[in-house]
Amino acid sequence: MIRKISVIIAVISLAALSGCGGKDGAKDAAPAESFHVETINRYTPVKSQGKASDCWAYAMISTIESNHIEMGDSVHLSVAYVLRHRLKDLAAEYYLTGGKRKIDDRGTAVTLLRTILTHGIVPYDAYQDDATLNSGVLVRKLTKLAGTGMTRRTGLENLYKKVDDLLDDELGPAPRFAFMLGAEYTALEFAHSVCAPDEYQPLTSFTHHPFGAPFALEVEDNREGEMFMNVPLDTLERRVVDALNHHRSVCWEGDISEDGFSFDRGIARVSVGMKERRARVTQEERQKAFESFRTTDDHCMSIIGIARDDDGNKYFICKNSWGTKNPYRGLMYMSFDYFRLKTIAVVI
Fold it and tell me: Domain spanning 3-347 has what CATH number?
């Protein structure tokens, strides 16, 4: 049944932070718009990534959680556990490459999948995220620690011990086991129970590579050279719509630098100044935006549903990770045109 969402105008508190980090602060009231929801998946509570740039972890974990809820198997997973192991891996890379591979908290949705399938994951209640964590400060501490070890040639074993001590202080000691429904799992066993290898497929759509074949997506955060299947834009859109109509959420990765992207309004649509005609965004327009660096790899969200505005225009309903202080309690409505123009990739 089509449901109509009406939202009361609220005073929104916002202040832009670095990277894809969350929002907080004070801003003028944002006007609310109403949408007719066609389908929406159940989801875990909206969180705030705070001053971190780990939207990739929040969005992909949220997608996994939502899909399990729709299958009748409720899970709530720890971003902090993933971030801990990701940073530890990067500290070792920094050491072994003589500082050439930098340490940061950025990544792609596929980074999340690779990390949990290598190191595991635990429930959120066992290792909760700290929205007050300043990951930039933590990255600088890790870089200094790894650089000192590199200069002194102290070896990986010594480095790992010092990194673990630092991460224990900043994030808290990590649990060794996960417990669910009275059963005990290692973190790796638990990860494989919630996300099987090859369960998710990364997709993209660009014409500088042939369609129907995978390629290593050329964005900075894809530092491991993960492969993304290349499909036509219409196919990409249709695959996402089909997934949502079958109650499967999708992880979205794309650009949020357009004027039409506004968290305080809860809306992402192509700006009027750029596109005034009714024709849909084409493959050629999308490619031009990517090659001219107008479309960049900025942010990740989980797509959980489909809606229409009062004029019948279609939108994807996205679960963000910037807290709940917007008209839709942290959700956003992304127009199909915005999706077609500004998507870097999806994981489905």
Answer: 3.90.70.10
Contact 187, 81 (CB under 8 A): yes
> Beta strands 314-319 and 331-335: pairing type?
antiparallel
pLDDT in tens, 218-264: 999 999 999 999 999 999 999 999 999 999 999 999 999 999 999 99
Name every residue whose Cβ is closer than 8 Å to that of residue 280 and which is 6 or more positions away in sequence: 336, 337, 340
Query: Beta strands 214-216 and 331-335: pairing type?
Result: unpaired
Cα–Cα distance for residue pair 295/289, rounded to 1 Å: 5
The pLDDT score that the predictor gives to residue 129 is 87
Instruction: Answer yes or no: are the C-beta atoms of 307 and 29 closer than 8 Å.
Output: no
| Surface-to-core class of residue 344, CB atoms within 10 Å of its CB (0-12 exposed, 13-18 middle, 19+ buried) | buried
Sole residue written with tokens 């993960």? 226
**Residue in 310, 57, 348, 26 with CA at minimum distance from that of residue 333:** 310
Q: What is the pLDDT of residues 45-104, one digit of tens each?
A: 999 998 889 999 999 999 999 999 999 988 999 999 999 999 999 999 999 999 999 999
Give the relative orientation of helices 109-119 and 55-70 as an angle to the nearest 10 degrees.
Answer: 70
Is it the case that residue 329 has pLDDT exceeding 60?
A: yes
Query: Cα angle at 52 between 46 and 54, to 5 degrees?
Result: 70
272: confidence class by pLDDT, cuts 50, 70, 90: low
Is the CB of residue 269 less than 8 Å from the CB of residue 260?
Answer: yes
Angle at 141 between CA 136 and CA 143, to 5 degrees: 95
Alpha-carbon distances of 130 from 28, 143, 257, rounded to whole Å = 27, 21, 26
Q: Which residue has the tokens 């902090």?
A: 80
State the pTM of this model. 0.90
Handedness of CA 95, 101, 102, 104 (dihedral sign): negative
- Domain spans of the chain, in order of start: 3-347
pLDDT > 70? residue 108: yes
Beta carbons within 10 angstroms of residue 231's beta carbon: 18
